[in-house]
Design a protein that fits this description.
Blueprint: H1 3-10, H2 14-29, E1 35-36, H3 48-60, H4 63-66, H5 76-90, E2 99-102, H6 104-116, E3 122-127, H7 133-139, E4 143-148, H8 158-164, E5 169-174, H9 187-204, E6 209-213, E7 236-241, E8 254-258, H10 265-279, H11 286-293, H12 303-319, E9 331-335, H13 341-350, E10 353-354, E11 356-357, E12 366-370, H14 375-393
Parallel strand pairs: 1-10, 3-4, 3-5, 5-6, 6-7
Antiparallel strand pairs: 2-8, 7-8, 9-12, 11-12
Helix pairs in contact: 3-11, 5-11, 6-7, 6-10, 12-14
Bound molecules: pyridoxal-5'-phosphate.
Pyridoxal-5'-phosphate binds near residues 104, 106 and 249.
Length: about 400
C-alpha cells in the first residue's frame, strides 16, 4: 500500500476524534450534559428555496437527464448561471468557461493546488489555517509554508510575508472569513496583499497565484464586507463552496473560478480540468449542480450565528477569556489560559465542554469553539464555561 495514504487514513483528524468522543460521552452521561463545539456543521437549515427547487426539479425534469452525467467540468447552463452571478454580485468579468464544478471547497482546493503546483513548489498560507491545507498541498507534491499572523488581529503579518517568498513560491492561499479565527480580511489588508504579490511576481520573474478559499463568504455580521479578490489581484483562483452558505455540507457542491485576468487563464483552466480528471473529481453531483444554478444569491439565515456569536463571545470575555473579534464564519478562536491548549481542552472536557486545540490549525496556545450549534445549547453551556474560567482566573 501507499504509506502516506495509510497514514492519512489511519489517523483521524483531531476534530473528528473529539466529535466521536462527544457521541460516546452523550450515550454515557446524557446528551444534555455534553456541549459539543467541535464540528463546523451548519446548525441552520437550508433556505426554503433549496427544498422547493429540489422538489420542482424532481417533479418536472426527466429523471434520466436530471441524474445523468454532466460534462466533466459541470453542466454548461449551471456554469453560465454562476458566471452571471459573479458578474452581477461582484462586478468581476466571468464566463462559463472559467468555472469548474466541484464537490465542495475541499475538492476545489485540491484540484487548484494540483493544477498549479509542480513537485517541490511552495504554497504560503497564514496561521491559523484550515487543518486540511497541509494534506491538500502535499497531495499536489508541494510544501505548505505556514506563516504566523499578527496575534492581536489575525490579519496578515506583511513583514513575515515579505521574507517568505522564494524562487519556489507558486501560490499564496488565503481564507477569509477565516476558519478558525472568524477574522475577515479588511480591504486595506487585501490591497496590501495584492501589491506585495505584484511586487514579488516582478522580482521573481514569475506569476505568483492567489488561491482564495471562500466557503464562509456570506457568513459575515454587522454589515462587514468581504472584498472579492479577483477585483484586487489578477492572478486569482476562487475556491467556492455552498456547504456553509446554503447549509449543504453533505451534498458536496462548489466550484473553482479561474479569473479571466489570470496570466494564461485558458491554459490554467485546462490544467484545472486535468487535475479534476486526474483526481477523479469529474461531474460534480448533477442534481445539486442544477439546484444551485436556480438558487444563486440565496443564503441560510445567518442571523442565528450572529446571535450565537454575541451570546458566547460576550459571556466568555466577561468570564476572563480573550479572543479576537470574529466578524464572520462561525468560530471563536480563544486564547488558552494555560500555555498548552491540549491540557486546557482536557480540563474543559471534564465539564462537558468539547473544544478543539489550535495546534492542528498551526496556532498552539489557542482553542477553537464552533458556535454553529443551537442557541439553547450555548445558554446551557455558560455555567460550565464560567466554572472553567474560575479555575484559571479566580
Ligand atoms: N476550507 C475551509 C476553511 C473550511 O472550513 C472547510 C470546511 O469546514 C473547507 C474548506 C471544506 O469545505 P467543503 O465542505 O465545502 O469541502
Amino acid at each position: 500500500m501507499n504509506q502516506r495514504m495509510y497514514e492519512l487514513g489511519s489517523k483521524r483528524s483531531v476534530i473528528r476524534e473529539i466529535f466521536e468522543y462527544g457521541k460516546k460521552r452523550a450515550a454515557e452521561v446524557g446528551a444534555e450534559n455534553v456541549f459539543d463545539f467541535s464540528l463546523g456543521n451548519p446548525s441552520v437549515k437550508p433556505p426554503q428555496i433549496v427544498e422547493d427547487t429540489l422538489i420542482g426539479l424532481l417533479k418536472s425534469e426527466d429523471a434520466t437527464a436530471l441524474h445523468g452525467y454532466t460534462s466533466a467540468q459541470g453542466d454548461a447552463g449551471v456554469r453560465a448561471a454562476i458566471a452571471e452571478y459573479i458578474r452581477k454580485a461582484h462586478g468581476a468579468a466571468a464566463d462559463a468557461d472559467q468555472i469548474y464544478m466541484t464537490c465542495g471547497a475541499a475538492a476545489s482546493l485540491t484540484i487548484s493546488l494540483c493544477a498549479l503546483c509542480e513537485a517541490g513548489d511552495e504554497v504560503i498560507t497564514f496561521a491559523p489555517f484550515f487543518t486540511e491545507y497541509r494534506v491538500f498541498t502535499e497531495t499536489a507534491g508541494a510544501h505548505l509554508v505556514a506563516l504566523p499572523s499578527d496575534p492581536d488581529t489575525f490579519q496578515i503579518d506583511f513583514a513575515a510575508l515579505e521574507k517568505a517568498f522564494t524562487p519556489r513560491t507558486r501560490a499564496v492561499l488565503v481564507n477569509s472569513p477565516n476558519n478558525p479565527s472568524g477574522v475577515v480580511y479588511s480591504e486595506e489588508t487585501v490591497k496590501k496583499l495584492a501589491a506585495m504579490l505584484e511586487k514579488k511576481s516582478a522580482e521573481l520573474g514569475k506569476v505568483i497565484y492567489l488561491i482564495t478559499d471562500e466557503p464562509y463568504r456570506e457568513l459575515v455580521y454587522g454589515g462587514v464586507k468581504v472584498p472579492y479578490l479577483p477585483n484586487y489581484y489578477k492572478h486569482t483562483l476562487v475556491c467556492y463552496s455552498y456547504s456553509k452558505s446554503l447549509s449543504l455540507p453533505g451534498e458536496r457542491i462548489g466550484y473553482i473560478f479561474v479569473s479571466p485576468l489570470v496570466a494564461e487563464a485558458k491554459r490554467i483552466y485546462l490544467a484545472v480540468c486535468g487535475a479534476g480528471r486526474a483526481l477523479g473529481y469529474v461531474c460534480a453531483p448533477s442534481l445539486f449542480q442544477k439546484m444551485i444554478a436556480r438558487c444563486q444569491g440565496a443564503v441560510s439565515d445567518v442571523s442565528v450565528y450572529e446571535k450565537n456569536r454575541d451570546l458566547l463571545a460576550d459571556a466568555l470575555r466577561q468570564y476572563g477569556f480573550t479572543c479576537v473579534r470574529p466578524d464572520g464564519a462561525f468560530y471563536l478562536f480563544v486564547k488558552s489560559p494555560e500555555p498548552d491548549a491540549n491540557a486546557f481542552c482536557e480540563r474543559a472536557k471534564l465539564r462537558g465542554l468539547l473544544l478543539v486545540p489550535g495546534d492542528d490549525f498551526g496556532c498552539p496556545g489557542y482553542v477553537r469553539i464552533a458556535y454553529c450549534v443551537s442557541t439553547d445549547m450555548i445558554r446551557r453551556s455558560l455555567p460550565a464555561f464560567e466554572a472553567l474560567a474560575k479555575e484559571y482566573f479566580a
